Amino acid sequence: MTEPTRAHVFVSGRVQGVFYRATTKETAEGKGVDGWVRNLDDGRVEAVFEGPEDAVEEMVEWCHTGSPAASVEDVDAEYEEPQGEDGFRIRR
Q1: Which of 37, 62, 76, 80 has the highest CB neighbour number within 10 Å of its CB?
Q2: What is the pLDDT of residues 60-87, one digit of tens each?
Q3: Domains (ranges, CATH) in the chain?
Q4: How far is CA 61 from each of CA 3, 42, 74, 90, rounded to the nearest angstrom?
Q5: Catalytic residue among 14, 38, 39, 89
Q6: Active site residue 38
Q7: Catalytic annotation on 39?
Q8: With contact defined as beta carbons under 8 Å apart, do 56 and 2 qualify?
């Protein structure tokens, strides 16, 4: 098992109202990644992925495509110390 890591991601483009958050949650749970996702007032989506390094990397890569209806322009990821996220949730 790889070391746990944490990625804090901001996704811009047409990423709200296109099931981006729901698809992110499904994908993260399928990969065993913990964290959360939410819409921001400026139209971006913010997400935190925490778990095995390879699975977190896959989630960051996935963000570049996102849900089928999304049109992603940019993904900005910063890596941080894991904070013990448990489960994956959609924040309001």
Answers
A1: 37
A2: 999 999 999 999 999 999 999 999 999 9
A3: 4-74 (3.30.70.100)
A4: 18, 22, 11, 19
A5: 39
A6: no
A7: yes
A8: no
